[in-house]
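Pilot study result, target chain (221 residues):
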Amino acid sequence: MSDQLRLYSYWRSSAAYRVRIGLNLKGLPYETVPVHLVRDGGQQHTAQFRKANPQGLVPVLQHGNRMLRQSVAILEYLDETWPSPPLLPVLGRDRQRVRSLSQLLACDIHPLNNLRVLQHFEHTWNVPQPERDDWVRHWIVEGFGAFEAMVAGHPSTGEYCEGNTPTQADCCLVPQVYNARRFGVTVEDFPTIARIDRACLALPAFDRARPERQPDCPTPQ
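Predicted structure:
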Protein backbone atom coordinates (compact mmCIF):
# COMPACT_ATOMS: atom_id res chain seq x y z
CA MET A 1 0.00 0.00 0.00
CA SER A 2 1.31 3.44 -0.90
CA ASP A 3 2.20 5.69 2.01
CA GLN A 4 0.60 8.69 0.30
CA LEU A 5 -1.73 10.45 2.73
CA ARG A 6 -4.66 12.63 1.70
CA LEU A 7 -6.71 14.47 4.33
CA TYR A 8 -10.29 15.47 3.53
CA SER A 9 -10.63 18.49 5.76
CA TYR A 10 -12.40 21.75 6.50
CA TRP A 11 -10.28 24.56 7.86
CA ARG A 12 -12.54 25.25 10.88
CA SER A 13 -13.46 21.64 11.71
CA SER A 14 -12.30 20.74 15.23
CA ALA A 15 -12.09 17.06 14.33
CA ALA A 16 -9.96 17.71 11.24
CA TYR A 17 -7.79 20.06 13.32
CA ARG A 18 -7.00 17.14 15.68
CA VAL A 19 -5.78 14.99 12.83
CA ARG A 20 -3.69 17.80 11.32
CA ILE A 21 -1.89 18.15 14.65
CA GLY A 22 -1.29 14.41 14.84
CA LEU A 23 0.09 14.26 11.30
CA ASN A 24 2.37 17.21 12.01
CA LEU A 25 3.63 15.73 15.29
CA LYS A 26 4.48 12.55 13.39
CA GLY A 27 6.23 14.55 10.66
CA LEU A 28 4.02 12.96 7.99
CA PRO A 29 3.48 14.88 4.74
CA TYR A 30 -0.08 14.91 3.44
CA GLU A 31 -2.26 16.50 0.80
CA THR A 32 -5.25 18.55 1.94
CA VAL A 33 -8.52 18.02 0.09
CA PRO A 34 -10.89 20.80 1.19
CA VAL A 35 -14.52 19.89 1.89
CA HIS A 36 -16.52 23.06 2.52
CA LEU A 37 -19.13 22.31 5.17
CA VAL A 38 -21.37 25.29 4.37
CA ARG A 39 -20.98 26.21 0.70
CA ASP A 40 -23.55 24.74 -1.73
CA GLY A 41 -25.53 23.33 1.17
CA GLY A 42 -22.44 21.54 2.49
CA GLN A 43 -20.07 19.63 0.22
CA GLN A 44 -19.98 16.81 2.78
CA HIS A 45 -23.48 15.87 1.60
CA THR A 46 -22.50 15.21 -2.02
CA ALA A 47 -22.69 11.69 -3.40
CA GLN A 48 -18.97 11.84 -4.20
CA PHE A 49 -17.96 12.60 -0.62
CA ARG A 50 -20.45 10.10 0.80
CA LYS A 51 -18.40 7.42 -0.95
CA ALA A 52 -15.45 8.50 1.19
CA ASN A 53 -17.56 8.71 4.37
CA PRO A 54 -21.19 7.56 4.43
CA GLN A 55 -21.68 9.68 7.57
CA GLY A 56 -20.93 12.84 5.60
CA LEU A 57 -18.38 14.03 8.16
CA VAL A 58 -14.81 15.26 8.06
CA PRO A 59 -12.08 14.33 8.52
CA VAL A 60 -11.35 11.37 6.32
CA LEU A 61 -7.73 10.31 5.97
CA GLN A 62 -6.96 8.38 2.82
CA HIS A 63 -3.91 6.12 3.16
CA GLY A 64 -3.34 4.52 -0.20
CA ASN A 65 -6.71 2.99 -1.09
CA ARG A 66 -7.92 2.84 2.49
CA MET A 67 -10.37 5.48 3.81
CA LEU A 68 -9.94 6.13 7.53
CA ARG A 69 -12.72 7.80 9.53
CA GLN A 70 -13.32 9.20 13.05
CA SER A 71 -10.60 11.57 14.23
CA VAL A 72 -9.56 9.83 17.46
CA ALA A 73 -9.47 6.44 15.71
CA ILE A 74 -7.32 8.07 13.00
CA LEU A 75 -4.91 9.38 15.66
CA GLU A 76 -4.57 5.89 17.10
CA TYR A 77 -4.03 4.48 13.59
CA LEU A 78 -1.22 6.98 13.07
CA ASP A 79 0.33 5.89 16.36
CA GLU A 80 0.13 2.22 15.46
CA THR A 81 1.42 2.70 11.92
CA TRP A 82 4.14 5.27 12.69
CA PRO A 83 4.98 4.65 16.38
CA SER A 84 7.56 7.42 16.75
CA PRO A 85 7.06 9.93 18.20
CA PRO A 86 4.22 8.37 20.21
CA LEU A 87 0.86 10.03 20.83
CA LEU A 88 0.07 7.65 23.70
CA PRO A 89 2.26 6.93 26.74
CA VAL A 90 3.90 3.58 27.44
CA LEU A 91 2.20 2.63 30.71
CA GLY A 92 -1.37 1.38 30.59
CA ARG A 93 -2.55 3.67 33.39
CA ASP A 94 -1.15 6.71 31.58
CA ARG A 95 -2.64 5.61 28.25
CA GLN A 96 -6.02 5.28 29.95
CA ARG A 97 -5.73 8.81 31.33
CA VAL A 98 -4.86 10.25 27.92
CA ARG A 99 -7.73 8.39 26.30
CA SER A 100 -10.11 9.56 29.04
CA LEU A 101 -9.12 13.20 28.56
CA SER A 102 -9.36 12.82 24.78
CA GLN A 103 -12.83 11.32 24.94
CA LEU A 104 -14.10 13.98 27.34
CA LEU A 105 -13.31 16.51 24.64
CA ALA A 106 -14.10 14.55 21.48
CA CYS A 107 -17.12 12.56 22.68
CA ASP A 108 -18.75 14.64 25.42
CA ILE A 109 -18.13 18.30 24.48
CA HIS A 110 -17.60 18.43 20.73
CA PRO A 111 -20.72 16.56 19.49
CA LEU A 112 -23.01 18.96 21.36
CA ASN A 113 -21.62 22.00 19.50
CA ASN A 114 -21.06 20.33 16.15
CA LEU A 115 -22.23 22.16 13.02
CA ARG A 116 -24.92 19.60 12.16
CA VAL A 117 -26.46 19.93 15.65
CA LEU A 118 -26.57 23.73 15.38
CA GLN A 119 -28.01 23.54 11.87
CA HIS A 120 -30.75 21.20 13.13
CA PHE A 121 -31.61 23.70 15.85
CA GLU A 122 -31.78 26.46 13.27
CA HIS A 123 -33.56 24.76 10.38
CA THR A 124 -35.88 22.37 12.23
CA TRP A 125 -36.78 24.27 15.40
CA ASN A 126 -35.97 27.85 14.36
CA VAL A 127 -33.77 28.39 17.42
CA PRO A 128 -32.35 31.94 17.22
CA GLN A 129 -28.59 32.51 16.98
CA PRO A 130 -28.17 33.85 20.56
CA GLU A 131 -29.79 30.75 22.04
CA ARG A 132 -27.70 28.46 19.84
CA ASP A 133 -24.55 30.24 20.99
CA ASP A 134 -25.63 29.94 24.63
CA TRP A 135 -26.09 26.19 24.11
CA VAL A 136 -22.54 25.89 22.78
CA ARG A 137 -21.01 27.93 25.59
CA HIS A 138 -22.94 26.01 28.26
CA TRP A 139 -21.59 22.61 27.22
CA ILE A 140 -18.04 23.85 26.64
CA VAL A 141 -17.92 25.53 30.06
CA GLU A 142 -19.37 22.47 31.78
CA GLY A 143 -16.90 20.17 30.01
CA PHE A 144 -13.93 22.46 30.59
CA GLY A 145 -14.79 22.61 34.29
CA ALA A 146 -14.45 18.83 34.50
CA PHE A 147 -11.32 18.79 32.33
CA GLU A 148 -9.66 21.50 34.44
CA ALA A 149 -10.37 19.49 37.60
CA MET A 150 -8.77 16.43 36.00
CA VAL A 151 -5.53 18.16 34.97
CA ALA A 152 -4.99 20.94 37.55
CA GLY A 153 -2.53 19.74 40.17
CA HIS A 154 -2.58 16.15 38.90
CA PRO A 155 0.85 14.50 39.33
CA SER A 156 0.83 13.29 35.72
CA THR A 157 0.13 16.74 34.27
CA GLY A 158 3.30 18.38 33.05
CA GLU A 159 3.89 20.99 30.42
CA TYR A 160 1.15 19.22 28.47
CA CYS A 161 -1.90 17.18 29.45
CA GLU A 162 0.22 14.12 30.25
CA GLY A 163 3.84 14.78 31.08
CA ASN A 164 6.19 16.91 29.04
CA THR A 165 5.49 15.43 25.60
CA PRO A 166 2.34 16.23 23.57
CA THR A 167 -0.13 13.37 23.39
CA GLN A 168 -3.45 12.55 21.80
CA ALA A 169 -5.14 14.54 24.59
CA ASP A 170 -3.36 17.72 23.49
CA CYS A 171 -4.37 17.03 19.89
CA CYS A 172 -7.98 17.10 21.10
CA LEU A 173 -7.66 19.98 23.57
CA VAL A 174 -6.23 22.69 21.33
CA PRO A 175 -9.02 22.52 18.71
CA GLN A 176 -11.65 22.64 21.44
CA VAL A 177 -10.00 25.71 22.96
CA TYR A 178 -10.08 27.33 19.52
CA ASN A 179 -13.78 26.54 19.30
CA ALA A 180 -14.38 27.86 22.80
CA ARG A 181 -12.76 31.21 22.01
CA ARG A 182 -14.75 31.41 18.79
CA PHE A 183 -17.99 31.23 20.78
CA GLY A 184 -16.88 33.72 23.42
CA VAL A 185 -15.87 31.39 26.26
CA THR A 186 -13.32 32.98 28.60
CA VAL A 187 -10.71 30.23 28.47
CA GLU A 188 -8.58 32.02 31.08
CA ASP A 189 -11.20 30.98 33.64
CA PHE A 190 -9.58 27.54 33.26
CA PRO A 191 -5.91 28.35 33.94
CA THR A 192 -4.42 24.89 33.40
CA ILE A 193 -6.25 24.49 30.09
CA ALA A 194 -5.11 27.96 29.00
CA ARG A 195 -1.50 27.22 29.99
CA ILE A 196 -1.39 23.90 28.15
CA ASP A 197 -2.96 25.50 25.07
CA ARG A 198 -0.23 28.19 25.02
CA ALA A 199 2.50 25.58 25.40
CA CYS A 200 1.09 23.52 22.54
CA LEU A 201 0.65 26.44 20.14
CA ALA A 202 4.29 27.41 20.69
CA LEU A 203 5.24 24.15 18.92
CA PRO A 204 5.53 24.22 15.10
CA ALA A 205 3.37 21.09 14.71
CA PHE A 206 0.45 22.80 16.45
CA ASP A 207 1.08 26.20 14.89
CA ARG A 208 1.00 24.80 11.34
CA ALA A 209 -2.30 23.05 12.09
CA ARG A 210 -4.11 26.27 13.09
CA PRO A 211 -7.30 26.92 11.09
CA GLU A 212 -6.00 30.24 9.78
CA ARG A 213 -2.95 28.43 8.32
CA GLN A 214 -5.03 26.11 6.14
CA PRO A 215 -5.23 26.47 2.35
CA ASP A 216 -9.04 26.59 2.39
CA CYS A 217 -9.21 29.32 5.03
CA PRO A 218 -10.93 32.35 3.44
CA THR A 219 -8.01 34.57 4.52
CA PRO A 220 -5.07 32.19 5.17
CA GLN A 221 -2.14 33.59 7.15
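One observation from the pilot: The chain has nine helices and four strands. A full batch analysis is planned for the follow-on phase.
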